[in-house]
Queue: 2 jobs
Job 1
Amino acid sequence: MKALEVSHIYKTYNDITALKDVSFNVAEGELFGLIGPDGAGKTSLIRIIITLLLADSGEIHLLGKDVVKEYKYLRSRIGYMPGRFSLYSDLTVLENLNFFATVFGTSIEANYNLIKNIYSQIEMFKDRKAGDLSGGMKQKLGLSCALIHKPEVLFLDEPTTGVDAVSRKEFWEMLQELKQKGITIIVSTPYMDEAEMCDRVALLQKGEIMSIDTPQNIINEFSEELIEIKTPDLYEVKEKLRLEFGKNSAFMFGQSIHFSTSSKSKSKELLNEFFEENNFNIESVNIIEPNIEDCFIKLMTKDS
Amino acid sequence: MRTILFLLQKEFIQIFRNKTMLPIIFIMPLVQMLVLVFAANLEMKNIKMKLVDFDNTATSQEIVSKFKASPFYNIIGYSYSVEEAQNSLIDNSADLVMVIPPNLEQDILNGQSPKVQLLIDAINGMTAGLINSYSSMIMLDVNKDIAIELMKFSANQQLKQISIKQRFWYNSGLNYKHYMVPGIIVILVTIIGMFLTALNIVSEKEFGTIEQINVTPIRKYQFILGKLIPFLLVGLFDFALGLFIGKLLFGVPIRGSLFLLFSFAFLYLVLVLGIGLLLSIISDTQQQVMFLTFFITLVFVLMSGLFTPIETMPLWAQRVNIINPFAYFMKVNRMILLKGSGFFDLIREFLYIGIYGIISIVVAIRLYRKTS
């Protein structure tokens, strides 16, 4: 059985289209990523699925139930962690957890096993007010509260936004553990590097799904040769390359430029010639394997 | 039911942990009662009076001495120029100028009615009205004495006249504090109930916590009851505290049944909290809801009959007061406390407030949406 079936969802706010013909399925036990830049429609989509927002048209079945008609059945079976910290700042860690356990008609003890690995990291602060926790700890508390009623499907809206690199890595490890326990997880993120941690990802842009596949397949579809250029004059070189080979040919990647063109062969030789002609100060030019970010950037710029 | 208990537990932890909320609940009643009751003084004392006496006879002196004898008047000076006396009105050194015309005594003896002029500073219409009625009363007294004098001169017989003996019921000492305290208590309870409820729910919206609540199986009515019950209890507590202070410090009588009074307070609070809830549902930020609540309470307080009796308001205002909860509670509070009215005297008030309360809660529950 599919845990989630989304078919032909449309949503507009006044005149702005937030979601346009969005359809996808998530299998039971899958870790599914919704990847897209800010304003792509990730949050709207999640809010529609978890019964907080009504779509203009389209149908969604979550755990086999219609999300509009059977929201009461669903609300006790889904866990949701909003992007913004939304627990009670003036209650302590333990009080928050206890509150959410009791409103779901359960207790901390009953499901402690599920949250043990996460909660044990903040348990020493259990009498501290939630508002006084650091960002990473707030996030762990949020996840604990979303899990305390042992949901069948867990929704995380941009859980790693504004979290440091180490905590992000830890967080994804926690998600992998939860997946092992059989929970279906749907997570949205604007960080493309996190896509590789998901079983499958959907790339969302301007309310439309550009591509749905496993991260590996998405990488495999990158058919061109990718070249990494290192130079002290990053900006100037990038602009020159774009003028010569088209505006989607070169992108900055940290301290280097990633370059690709559709003229498949000999692009490295082509580049070296170009650099010599223009007298650029180039440190190195190497052919590299594309990663998922390269693929997304290519997908996202394909139409523009 | 269990869910509501957990919601209540959570609300009370939050109320008692909130460092601004607690003082509001406990100290505001004290301050309001002490400051407002003393400041909202409706009695006039020390009316500053300037005298222009062109007559200077025994009769004019008698008039002056009557004013002097009154505890309300303080004669600050004499003048022989109306213009100069008027200047003391302009520079605020006098509230009242009395001009006694020349030949006053002569005219009276000749059977004419001379006119004494009173110039009153009417910037504050209410004080001007009070000064006018006090002064008229004194002049009436003077007239009576003159009439008696004249009778003696002419016929040497007793003057027969109807005398009025007043007794002020329900507030025999005309103690304005007994009138003000019940009104102030109403304002206090309303502000506490309406503001705290409205702010509390909007703050859940602002902090995003309502988002997390909305995905839980908590039902609408559970959530709303969980919000209303704590503030209902806080409101009743403050009502009791207000009554206690009123009794202890101002000696306000409690002539009617306390049970009846608290029953009405309960119904009233349901309505007030319902209004607070409605305001918080249509607002998105604490700022918006503060202004809305402030606007509504201000209009209702001014129309409620706290300072000026509703019966003297224009007809349209009296009609508007049919929906003004303040007006009902103020009336009921005064009637039960001062008059000792029973349930059957207040059936109309109970009925209206009960119906409004039910309407406000039902509308609030219908308007509150978990799904947008």
Job 2
Amino acid sequence: MAAPAANATPPAVLEIKRLRKYFPIRKGLLQRVAGQVRAADDVSFAIRQGETLGLVGESGCGKTTVARCILRAYRPTSGQLLFYTQSGEVVDLAQLSRPALRPLRRQMQMIFQDPYGSLNPRMSLFDIVGEPLLVNGLRSRQARSERVAELLRLVGLPPEYAQRFPHAFSGGQRQRIGIARALALNPRLVVADEPVSALDVSVQAQILNLLLELQQRLSLTYLFVAHNLGVVKHFCDRVAVMYVGQLVELAETQALFRRPRHPYTAALLAAVPAPDPRVRSGAAELKGDVPSPASPPSGCYFHPRCAHAVDACRSERPAYREIEPGHFVRCHRADELNLEGIAQ
Amino acid sequence: MTSAEPLLSVRDLKVHFPLDEGLVRAVEGVSFDVAPGQVFGIVGESGCGKSVTMKAILRLVEPPGRIVGGQILWRRPRQAGEASSQTEEIDLAQLERNGREMRSLRGAEIALIPQEPMAAFSPVHTIGDQIREAIVLHQSVSQREARRLALEIFHDVGMPMPEQRLEAYSWQLSGGLRQRAVIAMALSCNPRLLIADEPTTAVDVTTQAQVLRLLRELQARRNSAIIFITHDLGVIAQMADYVMVMYLGLVMEQGPVDDIFHAPKHPYTQALLRSIPSVNSTPRAALPTVSGSLPHPFNRPPGCPFHPRCPQFMPGRCEAAVPELLPVGPRQMASCFLYQAAEVPA
């Protein structure tokens, strides 16, 4: 596994700049807007060609909202989504109309969390995996069937299964079908939203290995949305941590796990139960609950739960800044704190 | 309380579900003992029978599923006798599912912390009312006293603003608080055995850490036994004293938590431990996998159910018979022919 040289940063596939997605809260008979849920609030990061960027956080932190904005399942409230297309152009996905987006959609695909809910039970594998091909103009049944067979082989399923229906397959096999469908159009960017969290442990490893192998063979770029930090540590080159709609930290995986710079990241790492009875985990545990993104606290959103909070944290919103080359953090005290990571 | 006698002894338990499509042998001969004050972990992947085992103990297996064999021996101090050291033994498998005895026992002596805290409470009654109902049902106390006990238990589980929370509805609480409320309800009658069925799979990792710590504290303080069911090996490593690994309705291996994690004997346990991507594994290297997938419940492999996926499959033995669960260490047992001498041909 040749790691890219540290100083040769590959070009970006997608650059997200100050992305915001607010959902209005409507109340009363006239459905007046009574407030906003700030699901994604000033999120900026870039996904580089060929890398796997992990996006982690607890439920409700906005990671899925960001993923859906990228795929334009949601229209962002503001901000830019600069996509570097196959032909080398730069387009702002946030501004495009539906018809203008259409030719670009084939370059971005999604792998879903639930392998049961994401496959139509009335469609055969040929129809499921072949549908994106048909929609994108591959009319010849013969050509489609060849491509579907190729895709099924690629994800480790016998091509003879093409005429079967999803109910005949286990969770892991279904996830392979979902992956084949996502790869049908040779996407540049694959957004995988918790692709293994619904699978059993013994099957999880198979799917993770498949995703790694496909990435190397097809030079894919992944945005990997997940909450399991063990999986993220294993799978991602860089990791972005979200809390209440904001990015709080982004760094190379090794750096983030060895020396987190944001107290929330450190707490998240400490909370993972170690699969070893000789290692007692959960020492520094977070108190309280995640605040609502409809009424976030003043200052730093994390201050009510933070063991290191000072006055500035209560009143001033910390800026998202680069503390070391490639290591971004949103914390007033990032320079002075010495937080514990998970030792390698 | 260090009585040598186990609190619960399950012997050769079998639970089958006769369905139109065929017979599902969800639990196919499971035996184990739970000691007083012990945290007994059951791990396994979906379909291994861990939840059905739990339901059988509480006699909550839904028809058409039923217990077709085995014993579930529950030991408790004899209630009316003068000889207080005497214990009585009842076979829960023989009791009427919804009979009086089972109903008085369920919730009082053996309580459940279910997986989905949202589904555990009625949304149209306050949480306080529901906990009071449980207390009044099992203990002869007044409503007023029940309220006091409910409040006490809320303090015990670290519920912030307990008075207000008793008047709240389940949907008004966050995931973490709801899980605390469920634990409070389970503890409200001082059960001697608590069954926690994946109590943290529906909550986030920081909330999970809070809930696990709370359960550990309560367990240490009250010395009640816990059967802890989960698919998460990290959680089991942190919580359990003794671990049982199940696969397709059978016990593959059981032993003290340290032996299971540091000296696993059964190939399935070994494979399971290797395949978890942990925060300490080599990044981006291919994970060792268990080949194949879990068989469909109607297609149980003959012999050892793990043999089609087993890296150490021995043709002629593993598919021919189900290996017995036999000792492989001082307190460790495995059901695998690797540890059993081939039978001398007659």
